[in-house]
Each structure stands twice: as C-alpha cells, then as structure tokens.
Amino acid sequence: MRPEIHVTVAPELQLFVNSELRRKRAPVAIDASSSLGHVVESLGVPLTEVGRLLVDGRPARAAHVPAAGESVEVRPVERPQQVPGAPLRFLLDVHLGTLARRLRLLGVDAAYESEDIGDPALAALSAAERRVLLSRDRGLLRRREIWAGAYVYSDRPDEQLRDVLSRFMPVLAPWTRCTACNGRLAEAEKDTVAERLEHGTRRTYDVFAQCTACERVYWRGAHHERLETIVEDAVREFGGPAV
C-alpha cells in the first residue's frame, strides 16, 4: 500500500479537483519522490493558482517532497497578486479575444493571438516578452516555460474582466490603446484621416484618434455608449483617471 498524505484544498480551488478532494484532509497517495508541486498539479490544480502551501501548518515550497502522514493545505493566490520582475503585461490565448479587447479599451497592455499558434509557441512568447499568460486551459498553464500565468475562471466576458482586474489591479488608462492591435492611440486631425473615413463619418464627427501602430482610426460612434459603460464601471470599481 502506497504512503499517503492528507490534503485540504481551499474552497476557491475546489473547482479544479474531484469531489473526493473537496472535503477537509482528503487522503492522497504519494510515491515519496515527487515534489509537492507535482502532487498538487496531479490533483488538477494549476500552480499558477496556488498561493501558500502549508505542511503541518508551516509554509513549504513547491519543491518540498512530502512524507507519509503529513497534512498539506493548498491555499489560493492572494489578491491583488504582485508580479515582480517586469512591467505588468498580459498575453491571452485564442479563446479570450473579447477579454483582450476590453483590457485594451482600459489601456492595459494585452497581447492576443487571433489564430491558434499552439501551446508551445504561446508559452515561449510569454517567456520572451515576460507577459502573464491568461487562459482557461489548465494544460497550457502547466507548461514550465511560461513566465507567469493565471487561470480565467469564468466564460463570461464581464466576469472575466472583473476577475483579471481584481486579481492584478493593473493601472487603467482608458481610451489610450487600439482595441484591434494593442498599439498606442494618439489624437488625429480630421484632415489627416479623412481619406480613411466613410462620407457619413466625415460629415458627422470631428474628434478622432489613430493607432500609432496599425493606423486604425477611432471616433465616438454609435457603439461608444456601450464601451463607455464598460469603462465607467471598471474605473469606478478598480480605480483610474476620471472618464
């Protein structure tokens, strides 16, 4: 019979584990050689979501090799989460396009791949550009080469946005990024962008901005009221410059 430890998974993380592990001090078989981090991941919990690990009430590292009879507590990441070592920037997988556009709307640096470039390439990009990889794919978040990562808990864009903002508390600068490419926006004179506008737009609007990267032009069109609501709600709850 294999040796066992007793694991308590915090309520916030129990969606990752099976029903047997959702009770306090659930028995888990170990092989006496695998690290605690490996054991936790084998239960279904991505290490990106793990905050403190306690062994018999004392803080332990993911590299700790558990011994038979130990009691382990798996706690969630504390919010707001600090990501030291680089400016706070994000990389989103192919399934999070709406979230990427909303983060950009708020001025948050959010790179996004609209085509599926594959998990290895995403992980490598996260490492190369030191971006926090956001995904609902647990397997992707388990890749060792990612620089930092976070699981997106909801499949609803409104809840996804609140989740990311409450977890990382990025500085908000609404209306400063291109929602299409993540580039910076700059004020644009009407005459300089006129050739890019439909006749009705040229006749109706006078205030424009243009992306310094892809040159897309923006104005306060019919869709602006809906976007403004997203911005106002985010700034009210998570701070930022006046809208």
TrEMBL record:
Pfam families attached to this UniProt entry: Mut7-C, Ub-Mut7C
Domain (Mut7-C RNAse): residue spans on this chain: 89-230
Lineage: superkingdom: Bacteria
Location of the Ubiquitin Mut7-C domain: 3-81
InterPro entries: Mut7-C_RNAse_dom (IPR002782), Ub_Mut7C (IPR027798)
Protein name: Mut7-C ubiquitin/RNAse domain-containing protein
Organism annotation: Streptomyces hiroshimensis
Lineage of the species this protein comes from: Bacteria, Bacillati, Actinomycetota, Actinomycetes, Kitasatosporales
